[in-house]
Design brief:
Length: 353
């Protein structure tokens, strides 16, 4: 069998570049398509070992396209739910099912999942993606690494895009608030407060009356500018940048087992399971650290609920079917998530005191 030689240096450089520039295709152009068809291995169907599906075989019911135009999200959705009656509802049957939802949310938030393609507008999750060829596995890893590097740059600026599953089970696009955007928001909110609402950021209405302008002053300066932008926004943006860079390193390191263990199907299964779960663990650690999404979520409060509305208590006592509030907008509310986020947050607060 004579297989033409491939310039590996050129392949690696081109693949990494495509990831950074938002490459949307699956096949690297430098590969010989005829060669791929002639010597392709049998495609493997991915199912992580130990997977439990109480609702039967998951299948896509609708394919989605997300686009952001003038701040309005237009969606023809892709569903990541077993059936229409269970769309958006957290599983109450097993901890493993709830972990699977948590894992899915984390792998949608950052590139890296072996069967997740966040740079695509449709078919975001592909369980039948062909991992049998090392060149395809290397291409996927380096593309993910490049995408995470690009996300780090974006999070220093306006903010990086990500995907999430909304309450009705549709995959949508979201955007994080980057460091530069946070600083800009701070100055806009300060100016709006100091001018008593004579200047208001785009999309906001001006306050009316003396009392309204006084409330506007305190809300914009203390709540929006100092609390949300400085105390929450800046640490959150820095947290996102560190997370992106860490995951880019993980994606690159994955090429080592892919080049060895990945040459057989059990090895590929093991590599995918290990590295996908390591990515979920890294995301969890970054989330509960100061500035992380979970760190902020567990400290949310609602005094109208009395004792149950206190920080940490408010989060853990929130009903599983309640995803109201901006803290729960981009993640699914399950008992598993609330427990693993709230307990570490409680101890972190204790040690800080």
């Amino acid at each position: 069998m004579n297989i033409p030689e491939i310039n590996n240096s050129y392949v690696i450089t081109e693949t990494l570049t495509k990831g950074i520039t938002g490459f949307n295709g699956q096949d690297c152009g430098v590969f010989n398509n005829n060669l791929s068809e002639q010597y392709s291995f049998e495609k493997i169907l991915r199912r992580e070992s130990g997977e439990v599906n109480s609702f039967g075989r998951q299948q896509r019911e609708e394919i989605g396209v997300e686009s952001v135009r003038s701040g309005i999200l237009t969606i023809v959705p892709e569903r990541l739910s077993a059936n229409k009656t269970d769309i958006g509802k957290p599983s109450k049957f097993s901890i493993l099912e709830q972990y699977k939802q948590y894992k899915e949310d984390q792998l949608l938030s950052n590139p890296g999942g072996d069967n997740y393609f966040l740079n695509k507008s449709t078919e975001v999750r592909e369980h039948d993606y062909d991992h049998s060829r090392f060149t395809k596995r290397m291409e996927k890893n380096l593309t993910d690494a490049g995408s995470n590097i690009r996300n780090a740059v974006d999070n220093l600026g306006a903010g990086a895009k990500f995907k999430y599953v909304c309450q009705d089970g549709h995959v949508k696009d979201g955007r994080k608030v980057g460091l530069t955007a946070t600083v800009a928001n701070f100055f806009r909110n300060m100016m709006s407060g100091v001018t008593l609402g004579l200047y208001t950021p785009e999309g906001e209405s001006q306050p009316v009356g003396l009392v309204g302008r006084a409330k506007h002053f305190f809300r914009k300066i203390f709540k929006n500018a100092l609390f949300e932008d400085v105390l929450k926004g800046i640490p959150g943006s820095v947290n996102n940048v560190v997370k992106d860079i860490t995951l880019a390193g993980l994606n690159t390191v994955e090429n080592v087992p892919d080049a060895t263990l990945g040459n057989c199907k059990p090895g590929r299964n093991a590599t995918t399971a290990i590295f996908d779960n390591v990515q979920v663990f890294i995301s969890f650690i970054m989330d509960i650290l100061p500035g992380g999404a979970a760190y902020t979520r567990t400290r949310s409060f609602n005094f109208k609920r009395g004792i149950k509305g206190l920080p940490v208590v408010h989060n853990i006592t929130m009903p599983d079917d309640n995803s109201s509030g901006k803290e729960w907008k981009y993640v699914r509310n399950t008992g598993f998530r609330k427990t693993i986020e709230s307990i570490p947050s409680f101890f972190l607060s204790f040690f800080r005191i």
